[in-house]
Design a protein that fits this description.
Structural class: mainly alpha
Largest sheet: 2 strands, antiparallel
Helix content: 55-70%
Shape: elongated
Order of helices and strands: HHEEHHH
Radius of gyration: 34 Å
Strand content: under 5%
Amino acid sequence: MISAVAEMYEIHPQTLRLYEREGLLKPSRTEGNTRYYTDEDLERLEFILNLARDLGVNIAGIAIILQMRERMEEMNRQMQSFVEYVRTEMLSRFQAAVPSSGAIVPLKRAAIVPRVVEHKAVARKKNG
């Protein structure tokens, strides 16, 4: 409820109403039209209060920052979706290229050992 949240964060209930009027907070409502703040609402409020109290950002600035934050989160979701699409597409193409048995058998390679040729003077010293 608004009174409990206001007390918990040491702010006036009118401040919460102002944040709601400005669209910064959107608490849900009960059937009796009482504001109900979820954990997500409280996290958002903490972020707003940090901007206002600690950084001195005004309401217009807070609104802009919140919009930018939401856009960044949406871009992140889109990027994650794209990465998942590319991963799935690459996996399906790789599976289509593998023989139907599904097994990948490594090729055996003959070990090539370079032949060491000793210099004649070194060979004479060893032998003699």
